[in-house]
Amino acid sequence: MTRILVVSDTHGDERALWQALEEQPDARTVIHLGDGARETETMAELCKDRRFYIVRGNNDWGGAYRQLPETALEIVAGKRIFFTHGHRYDVKMGIYRVVCAARERQADVLLFGHTHQPLVDYEEGLHILNPGSLAYGRPTYGLLDITDAGIVPHTVSLRS
């Protein structure tokens, strides 16, 4: 089994990101969906044994963060994972556009953030996961398990 930790919208809360990493020691891959590039780069330096992927959110605008991609497609454990922050697809107004973008890339999984609201869905062969936010409301993150039996996305509340 491959476990991927999916986080978004940490908005400077390094402590919450560190806690999510500690809660999921088996997640050797970490995908951050934006609005937290600074703390994610810090964690990547501290956790050299994990693979970090980062896309830029609408609040990751300073300095070198402008160079981060807004979208990415990675193949992990044989599955095509498309991920983005979501603001360029107006996900607060609905997910149709971002779903279309994932389908254009023949993705098996779509990951997005920006709304601060966790979401797990499945639509005609596409697994959809929004991990929510580690910084606002009840802090949540996502897990994406890729097993021989299939793909299992779910959200988890950060332990108090």
Describe this structure in words.
This protein is an alpha/beta fold and 160 residues long. The protein has three helices and ten strands, in the order βαβαβββαβββββ. It has a single domain, classed as Metallo-dependent phosphatases (Purple Acid Phosphatase, chain A, domain 2), CATH 3.60.21.10. The strands form two sheets. It has a five-stranded mixed β-sheet with strand order 3-2-1-9-10, with helices on one face. A five-stranded mixed β-sheet has the order 4-5-6-8-7, with helices on one face. It is globular, with a radius of gyration of 14 Å. It starts with a strand and ends with a strand.
Strand count, sense and barrel status of the largest sheet are: 5 strands, mixed
Low-confidence stretches: none
Assign the structural class, choosing from mainly alpha, mainly beta, alpha/beta, alpha+beta, or little secondary structure: alpha/beta
Query: What is the domain tally?
Result: 1
State the total count of DSSP E strands: 10
For the record, give the distance between the C-alpha atoms at the N and C termini, rounded to a whole number.
Answer: 27 Å
Number of helices: 3
Q: Going by CATH, what is the homologous superfamily?
A: Metallo-dependent phosphatases
Order of adjacent strands in the largest pleated sheet:
3-2-1-9-10
